[in-house]
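Subject: design request, 286 residues
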């Protein structure tokens, strides 16, 4: 099992050195001219199966990079494990139809696994495929501790502005989402990408818990809309502020209200909109 070191300034890697990319011949057509053939970069999307102590648990469609981070983050936000220490080993096995992540977890977590077990047939961007009842949709999570205003509006703007240039897969393919972790000053310290927005956030959370980061000392910036499950995953990881570049849903706002998560959307260079817990935000000084 390998550990990804924390990096204070993520840098886009050259395409040839990146996981998650594949070359494909495309035909470009422009008005008034014949098409041209050339090589293009595509974001990979493959089935990823997770097995815990030999038990098949879930299959999702994801980008095959940072998969150990994904395994830790998914396991944590789904309530299978209580901390990174509950995972003893991770092995990745490539098969003809995809990749299997085989995890060895603490025996005490097996009951949690049975309670949260899903037979998922994952679809990109969908976090609910395979649930058998409405009762399984929302996890029972305690609200995060209320806190005085801790997040500066300038920090939100700085992190939002910086995120786009720290998405090498998206810059080359246009097909991935990103989740970034920023400190209170708005400096992005880590970014994870995936074709699925939930997967990107799980990868980021997996990185954070593996490095034993204090998740209350910063905020998450996501390149997608804010669904309820994005808020739920953040709250499960102790993240008390989520900033999205697109809109939130009603369920996301409701969950953010209930779990004491500051939720902002439409975060652009021109500003952003706070949908839940504006009292946690230090506004711009006029």
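Subject: RE: design request

Done. Sequence follows.
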């Amino acid at each position: 099992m390998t550990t990804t070191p924390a990096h204070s300034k993520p840098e886009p890697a050259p395409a040839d050195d990146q996981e998650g990319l594949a070359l494909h011949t495309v035909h470009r057509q422009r008005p008034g001219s014949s098409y041209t053939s050339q090589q293009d970069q595509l974001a990979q999307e493959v089935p990823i199966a997770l097995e815990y102590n030999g038990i098949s648990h879930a299959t999702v469609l994801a980008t095959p990079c940072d998969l150990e981070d994904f395994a830790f983050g998914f396991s944590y936000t789904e309530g299978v494990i209580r901390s990174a220490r509950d995972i003893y080993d991770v092995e990745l096995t490539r098969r003809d139809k995809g990749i299997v992540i085989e995890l060895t977890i603490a025996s005490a977590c097996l009951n949690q696994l049975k309670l949260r077990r899903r037979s998922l047939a994952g679809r990109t961007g969908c976090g609910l495929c395979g649930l058998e009842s409405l009762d399984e949709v929302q996890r029972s999570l305690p609200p995060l501790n209320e806190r005085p205003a801790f997040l500066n509006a300038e920090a939100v703007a700085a992190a939002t502005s910086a995120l786009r240039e720290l998405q090498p897969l998206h810059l080359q393919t246009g097909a991935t989402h990103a989740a970034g972790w920023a400190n209170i000053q708005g400096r992005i310290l880590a970014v994870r990408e995936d074709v699925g927005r939930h997967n990107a956030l799980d990868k980021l959370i997996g990185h954070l818990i593996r490095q034993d980061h204090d998740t209350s000392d910063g905020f998450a910036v996501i390149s997608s809309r804010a669904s309820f499950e994005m808020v739920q995953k953040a709250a499960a990881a102790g993240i008390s502020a989520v900033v999205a570049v697109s809109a939130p849903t009603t369920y996301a706002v409701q969950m953010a209200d209930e779990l004491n998560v500051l939720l902002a959307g439409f975060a652009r260079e021109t500003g952003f909109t706070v949908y839940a817990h504006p009292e946690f935000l230090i506004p711009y000084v006029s």
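The radius of gyration is 19 Å.
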